[in-house]
Amino acid sequence: MKVQTVKSGKIYKDFPMFISVFILAELMMLYILKNNGFYPFGTKSMLIMDMKNQYVEFITSLRNIIRGEDSIFFSWSRSMGGNYIGVFAYYIASPFSFLTLFFSVEKVPVAIEFLTCLKIGLCGISFCIYAKYLFDKYNAKSKILNICLIIPSICYAFMSYTMVYSLSIMWLDAVIFLPLILMGLEKIFDGSKGFQYVLCLTLLFISNYYTGYMVAIFTGLYFIIKIVSQYDISKRNIKKELSILIHFIMTSLMSVALAAPLLLASLKDLMSGKLSDVYTGYEPAESTNFVFAKIFTKFLYGKYDSITNTGLPAIYCGFVIIIFAALFFFMKNINIREKIGMILLICLFLLSFYFVGLDKVWHGFQYPNWFPYRYAFLFSFTLIYMALRTLISIDLSQAKLKMHLLEIIPKYMYKMAAFIIIVGVLFEMANNGAILIKGLGNEFGYGEMEEYTSFIRKTKPLVDGIKKNDNDLYRINQRYDYSKNDAMLLGYHGMTHYSSAFNAYINNLIPKLGLGQSYFWNSGYSSTPLTDSIFGCKYTISDETMPASCYTQLDTTAEGGSSYKNDMALPFAYAVSDKCTEPDLNQPGIFANQNNYLSSVTGTTVNYFTGCQFSVKQDTANTWTYSIQAVSDNPMYLYMQSNAGYADVYVNNNRISDYFSERKTGALYLGDFTTGQTVTVQVVAADDGNTYSQTFTDIVQLDVAALKNTTASLQKHGLKIKKQNGNSISGEIILDNWQNQIMTSIPYDEGWTIYIDGKKADYTKYAGSFIKFDCSSGKHTITMKYVSPGFYQGVIVGIIGLLAFAFVFILHPMRKSRENKIAMTL
């Protein structure tokens, strides 16, 4: 088949077709939304699983950056404060994310729908642009086939991957950029310097480095197939191919360099979480993922199984695509080496799906916990590419073929057939998408729009009231939730966080103190006044009763939320003496660990919790009862360990809470009782025929007076904040003669730079998690600034990439242009 160089200006002539693809995609998405009862056609939102617990909150957190409360480097809303660049780079660095800023917090679910529909439409446009480039490159002439480019474009936009992983909205950027990156690569083969290739690959690395890594591998494979298939064996001249290879490598490295400030900083952040020595990821027991024969069921229409690790790859991309992809191998004018390359590529993907080892390579050498085969869109693209090449190869403009067919079939029949096929594909892919979205909803349940708005009404006024009346530096501990990242959603300094870019050291510490933690998630659930105080939680938002001796109620909402103030909360930094030692946090009970933590900070052993005398009786196979004697009028707390996975807890026959869930595994507030009062606590586990009982129990009462005395003493020597912004704080502190260290509740991170009176100071790690540093007695100005580790090194690499980019695409062309003008005047 004849190949010709395509002029870039021709793309504007096809603009109506690109817009048509986008409009058709949007209409199909509206059909899918209506079919599944999404807003505005029904009551559902698209918030499900991680879309509900992560993505919507992170997208909303962009507002905190715009307001200056957080920065791209640091967020106080993440795990008591931490490196934000990893979250930003993985979840929300896409330029499309910033469109959500035009929506209020109350309307963020609508913004998610808008963004999802927009990205699906852009997937169709990007592939159509790529397809038209190949159509012109291979010198296809037929207007009917030109219109038929709508088919692979729609199939690409609505392949099963984009439907099933529409909840992972950040991964859709890779689906958008992939055709444009490969089009840029095709242009390099056609003699271009690679501006489009560098630009699009860089944008993808910035938008989502994770799927960018997958696309980079695929691009390399695509390049190998192309250069091998296009090499002219008869001429035996590899000079041109070698030049293309070098150009490909240099432009690829240029893209990596340009994105380096974000890439290197994100890699360093991962090293404190997923790539740290503290984290041990999920590993399957078998060396294979599934029974191999089952993979072929995913080539069928409307097949949804699961998005957990039991599910198979989402690879269906249309019946017509599968037929035309098969015909690819029978087209005489397609190079045999390209056919062999595509066979090998398909085999590689099938083996990658099947074998765990290869599967992990595509996932950055980390086996995914749910959301499997995240690179499956590349397999679907391969099939659609093959179908596109087949379509291009059927050149009805060839004179002999055209004349022969026109004698048998009228010309209008071709147009009618093309129209019928296009309409059929639209209906097939729209219905396939609707079925998959329904399957996902049936498995995990899409949230109701009212669920979100009700939470906002219940909580946002409380947060706004606190922030309006107090502009100091403090944390808010929220004791109920909508998601696992509500602090980012509502823009306050919080305790809770859940993402792949987690802080492994914080996640390792807080369960020892009784706070809720599971997998990547950490929280402030099951806290006590002691942990709230040492972690600077000056305010609490709760829909449960709080001990009045420790918390002052401030405000309430009609939906049942209440805000409370904790006057014992410590500042984020405060002076301590050299008696401060590392705490022993390996006790079996959380109250002993809490006691040891605060006692180690002060250097003075104080029993902040007093144990209660109690007896326990196993009533039935799933129920046991405690009889407790109160030793004071102070708040009483319960901690249990058991083989039960869930239980209801009753105090004096009144249900107060559940227990053993991930949110309720630590301290449970039982109430305030009088000295000598007998308290009956009944624990009722699931009645499923199994026997459940407690294996460890600790029941204590908090010595409120002792805690207030200690916190008041530490508060006197706390850091008084004078200035704060997204990634820095500055304030004054006074140390007595017997004090020589400053303790903080700021998570340790190498990105911090600390200045004492303008001089840089070293700092160490306390309890494996928090910053502590030496400081002499007297009055000092403390300044703490944060820049994500790896960012400065990335900037250096980025500058090198930028200089290379400027030379190749600006300076060199200008020089050539001047030389040509001079030559013309001679």
Verbal overview:
It is built from 26 helices and 27 strands. It is α+β, with helices and mostly antiparallel strands and 826 residues long. The strands form seven sheets. It has a five-stranded antiparallel beta sheet with strand order 12-13-18-15-16, with no helix packed on it. It has a five-stranded antiparallel beta sheet with strand order 20-21-27-23-24, with no helix packed on it. The longest helix is centred in the last third of the chain and has 35 residues, at 791-825. It starts with 14 loop residues before the first helix and ends with a helix.
List key phrases describing it:
about 850 residues; five-stranded antiparallel β-sheet; 26 helices; alpha+beta
